[in-house]
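Example record for the data management plan.
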Amino acid sequence: MKHLLKAFYLVILAIFFVQCSKEYNLPENLVVKDFVWKGLNAYYLHQDDIKDLSDRRFSSDQQLNAYLTGFADYNTLFSSLVLTSDVKSSLLGDYTSLNNHAPRTGFLNGMEFGIIEEPNNAQNVIGYVTHILPNSDAATKNILRGEFFNAVDGIQLTQTNFESLLINGADTFNLTMVNFDGTTVTPNTKFVSLEKQIYDYDTVFLEKTFTIGTDNIGYLMYHNNFSKTSINNLNNTFLNFKNQSVNELILDLRYNIGGGSFAKNVTNLATMITGQFTDAVFIKEEWNSKAQPWFEANQPDSLLTKFPAKLNPTTNFNSLNLTDVYIVLNGNNFSGSSAVELLINSLKPHINVHVIGTNTVGNNTGAITLYNSEDYDFELRNETHTVAIQPIVLSFLNKNDQTYENGFMPNIALCPNEDILDLGILGDQSEPILDRVLEYVSTGSTSPSVACNANGLTFLYSSIDFQREIDKGVFIRQDLPNNN
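Corresponding structural encoding:
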């Protein structure tokens, strides 16, 4: 199928450069700039909106080269050729750092936390523990979700120093723990030493089953991004659910760290949730006005992702055949990941998807990694440089041609921030948010919500939201259609 992509590219080149010479040699100093322009011209989703990417902008390679010479470097060129509102498309100076199939790792101590302004003392801040990562350094220490701290190595945390001390500071530090009642900070003589280590994120943060009446409710708190490795681990979790006759599923993504992923892996997760829609359309792709009609005419199946029959040639799905799924999203920066919104939108025509939490932002586009080769594939890349581009190239639709550029409104709204004075124990039925969701699953209704942030606290930082911002929620398609 690579030949089809190459044919598409050669066709559009013929349209662009009707006066080009077969003997023309590209100047070495323009190799990367030429790649950037031509890659965006061919595949950038918003190519029609960028005047300098028009197919008729240049009538020859020489004219294009004169234009490219006017830019100081390829980064400046790239920035000029994407919409100013496009924060997702990116240029990679070194594609060798990419490893989309590897498990997610980090250098951390395992304490996830938030920061609030100290009441009555705006310069000082208080930290609170949202959760502890399993098998991390923090998991071996005497520190729990819902506890508070206000100093590192004896230094009071303030609005100006908490990032340098907690995030960018020493690999090992001591936390001064305190009590906090929503108004007053009280020292409690407890200190906790934490050390950063190389950490491999667990796919499944929590897995439990609750029996309420006739319902066996599976509860899955999913923390990792939607990677290839995580999908294999998830299949084992769904086997446990299947063996326990789970007939309702809560997928809790409050602390999901997002990140790029592949449509195939989202589809695999959806197949574990369902299982009764083999070969039915799950995702449709819509590319720019130049690429879309070509794909439709030459390889239309490449624009469709269908529910698969097997996880891989030797592994069956452990599917639950559910008709409802309850997806918990929370946080005041829930931009996705885009994989979560893709899952919601693509499942909606098939089963009832109950969204619980806050509004999502509508991250309905996908990027792709393009390399400097004739068909933009990695295999035949120009090895004189390591530049690649990841432009937004497509938008996602479901089988009913519905998309989600405006995001999703929840069926049940949760406060943007959890009640840090009553966080509860994750996975315990008494944990406030889980308790409310379980009530909704078992009765179809829920108790009235309590007032949000009754103490009027000022929230400044969340380690999970920070990680989501770094990842940008950009959904990276594995490759060009059928280009594998």
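Summary line stored alongside the record: Confidence is low (pLDDT under 50) at residues 1-7, 13-22.
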